[in-house]
Amino acid sequence: RDKNQVKLANWLLTSKSTIVLTGAGMSTESNLPDFRSKEGWWRSIDPITVAAPEALDNNYELFTDFYTARLEALEGTAPHEGHQVIADWEERGFVDAVATQNVDGLHTAAGSKNVYELHGSLKNIYCHNCGAKAAPSDFKAKRKCGVCGGKLRPGVILFGEMLPQEAWNTALSRIKSASLIIVIGTSLEVYPANQLPLLASGRTVYLNAEVSSSGQDFDLVLEGKAKTIITEVQRIMHEA
Ligand code: NAD
Ligand code: APR
Fold first, then answer.
1. Whose CA is nearest to atom 4 of ligand 1?
2. Who has the most CB within 10 Å: 99, 134, 140, 199?
């Protein structure tokens, strides 16, 4: 048995409050690319051209193509066993909530109830001008807002935009008071989500395919694939 996995299993079983913080690495095993790995989105696209508000004014065509591609990628995917185990841990009282930087909705699809979407949600389409809601099919068909004729966009937080206050404040206060924080599948490169582990008062765990560049110290580090490690830890918990 991997001693770090045994340790995480014991911490999960004994912790009185546990929050999971996830990033794009949690969804690569559901065939959704992350951003900064070698097959990540930002290896082929400059984020400033599609993930900043200016993109809506400067190159709306590229912007709509990029998010349409991501919406279409989403249609063919499902949560993997790792998402399902995290939902099971919440069900059994070992995890209280998931704060995620992901916009793919896979934690909720897997059955997690308390999910804080710090960077919004891809499927939540609305008008950039008047805020009127629209359907993903309207956005994919490159239609304009039915109310004001403005530009439609996904409810994904772009670089520089404010994070949804409610999700951010709840995640922040729960992470500050939790006795265990498990950070999974994120490079921790993007502010302000990357500050959350630093604000934790409890034990901190980093589970990532690449663990050397986070620049942050953790009480426990598990290097490897999220799905593999999470399901291994689940097996150890069942044997305990
Ligand atoms: P940033 O633009 O990533 O973050 C600063 C602003 O972005 C904040 O106001 C934050 O609220 C907002 N933001 C909200 N949601 C966001 C989201 N989904 N993605 C990104 N930002 C969001 O500024 P930065 O940290 O300088 O990052 C700019 C680029 O530089 C990013 O690609 C980042 O990965 C890269 N980078 C950042 C750091 C770092 O320590 N911040 C280090 C190396 C590389
Ligand atoms: N298992 C574990 N870790 C993985 C896996 C996996 N199967 N696949 C990838 N990873 C790791 C990568 O090694 C990388 O360190 O997950 C991390 C993903 O980091 P990023 O690609 O930077 O994604 P993320 O941290 O979520 O980016 C934060 O940046 O572009 C913005 O708004 C966007 O929410 C995103 C934010």
1. 191
2. 99
List the Cα angle 118/122/128 in 5-degree steps. Answer: 90
CA distance linking residue 49 with residue 200, whole number of Å? 34
CA distance 239 to 233: 10
pTM comes to 0.91
Name every protein residue with a CB atom under 6 angstroms from any ligand 1 atom: 47, 119, 157, 159-161, 163, 189-192
Mean pLDDT of 84-90: 98
In whole angstroms, give the CA distance from residue 149 to residue 103: 26
Minimal-distance CA residue to ligand 1 atom 43 = 189
- Selecting among 107, 119, 128, 238, the annotated active-site residue is 119
Backbone φ and ψ of 123, nearest 5°: -75, -10
The token duo for 220 is 């426990």
pLDDT band at 24 (very low <50, low <70, confident <90, very high): very high
Q: Ligand 2: distance of its center to the CA of 39 in Å?
A: 11
Distance CA 214, CA 177 (A): 22
Q: What is the ipTM of this complex?
A: 0.87
| Binding-site residues from annotation | 127, 130, 145, 148
Q: Per-residue DSSP letters for 75-90?
A: HT----HHHHHHHHHH
Strand ranges (E), 82-144? 97-100, 115-117, 120-127, 133-134
